[in-house]
Predict the 3D structure of the following.
Amino acid sequence: MTQIVDPGLELGTSDVDRDLPELALTAVRRPSLWSSRELIINLTRREVAGKYKRTVLGHVWSLLNPLATMLVYALVFAVILKQDPDRGNPSGLHNYALYLMCGLLPWSFFSNGVTSGMFALIGNSNLVQKVYFRRDVLVSAQVFSLLVTFLFEMLVLVIALLAFGGMPLPWVPLALLVIVLLTFLGLGFALLLSVANVYFRDTQHFINIAFQLWFYLTPIIYPLSRVQDKLRADHLFGMSLYDIYELNPLTRFIQVLRNLLYDNRFPAWSDVTYCVGATAVALIVGGLVFNRFEGRLAEEL
Amino acid sequence: MSGRPAVVVDGVSKSFRLYHERNGSLKAALMRGGRAEYEEFPALTDVSLEIPQGSTFGLMGDNGSGKSTLLKCIANILRPDTGTILTAGKLAALLELGSGFHPELSGRENIFLNGSILGLSRGQLRARFDDIVEFAGVETFIDQPVKNYSSGMYVRLGFSIAINVDPDVLLVDEVLAVGDQAFQDKCAAKFAEFKRNGKTVVLVSHALGSMRQMCDEVAWLDAGKLVEVGPPGPIIDRYVDDGHHAEESQDGSRRWGTGEVLISDVDIVDASGEPTTLLHTGQEATIRLRYQTQQRVQDPVFGLTVWTRDGTEVWAQHTHDAQENFPDLDGAGEVTFHIPRLMLLPGAYDLSAAVVDRSLSHYYDFRRYCHPFHMAAGPEKDRDTGGIVRLGGSWQMAPSDVPVVAGG
């Protein structure tokens, strides 16, 4: 006899008389980064698309903001304090605003990336507590969404450099590689701090202060040549202050990017190597710490 | 259902840290030498169970019994301290609908975003997009930001995305009661389809009625420990009894209540007035309750439930719904319920009887499964093929050259 059963009423019956698919029992594993790539893209897109929704100017803001910062610094340092930038060698550029932006844009990208990545877990706590997925994609998406904005800013900067007589174009591919490194340096810091911020909410306040100090310890608003000689004279722990100053990976990154875009020449190999090394260390340390604490995130948030 | 397990939980324990100082400040941690003070709260203690592939499996227990924690452990949101959890095939969890929606983005954008969080690829989402939108019933609003959605549309869209992940094991936490009746029916049909396709559903719910109906097996958790696993009927009964601190009465049935009035005897009498436990379909019958009060009881409400022996509720009524208002009770007496034709089909049945106050929430006395009885076939020649009740209808057929009168 054929049984005709309304699908809505069949819930109580337990005789599913068909062959079930053979499925192997496995422990739930963390999905690979590769299989999470679409998620990273979509989350990045969410950040980019969501950021300027309901503003009249929309994404123009992402260009207006650095432009405004540039005007402020240029006014203070070039007009009032008469700061004199290095002359581009061999480009011959001599423009404080452009010199500043070659350092300020990468710095802002790095510091904003780390800061917003630091909040990625706390800001998405409802998601972390309700759905399983790789948690580091949240941090990555924050950093990558800022990378999108940063690339636009850099595009405008390159156009401006061209307009003022620089010749940055042959160096753009190399600059892009350095930007990739800088992104992963920021990601390493963000991974570490995002977890730290879940356990200690003090992290965010501490980091705000640290970044202010870090900003002035990096040759962004002043040329490196201005501090070089003075710092070489003083010693601490058997190292010259300049050596300590140069431990800052951002100093190296900004030197490299300035060499490429403002000076239009190949940077010092020592700087390039240092950038690669610092990025590797930051990414490995950040990744390891994140993996170590990822499992408890849902309950600690 | 097959013998193969879809989920194996083996010796799982999970405790939470209850910090003495709410989420540590760095200063406090430094002063204590890096370690925050906390107490371990055991949410799950050595839980082991197997969930068969193709079954609907319920987790039940009081608030704080650890059922949601177990579900989250299976979903890999929480990591057990000890023990292992193995699952077969793809897993999806419906713990909260629409979590991860971005309010400023459109429904369309959110489908792709949420879908990829749940592990669907862009291609899969594109293929299922129309199904998702249609199932959620948000076609006209799909390009509106979801913040403009009604709360119903919001959860419907969330449910629709999650269900279209098409997992092998679906974990559900108290989210069945979303949307209007039409949507709930759609959900029930979807769950049924799931089951037919051999998928496994694990659900956490306090709705014992639907657990009884939907689940093939349930697990009862109490204070983080597994009490028992098995078919839903008896376990849910014991769980309810436990919650009411029921005692065993002389005849072995369970009862609870405050005891101002007690149901001393439950009988079914046939047309001749003789108590019996064997009745025939279509026969006249009367259910008779004898009561004895300990003190005067105002506005009593009597109730009866007929069950099949495997725990399906066939019928229930109390005197309040029957529009009967009985006078105050004082002393002993009898309440009867007369059934002119008892239309239950042959099989084993049982009765529950209760007397409660007018609010229907205060139990003076509740007696579960207090009068088992059997039904046998009645004198009629025509037989019923299956089911629980006899509808007593008749078949007719109209030859094809005669126009069929609708409703005739």
In short: The CA atoms of residues 231 and 242 of chain A lie 5 Å apart. Chain A touches chain B through 52 residues (CB under 8 Å).
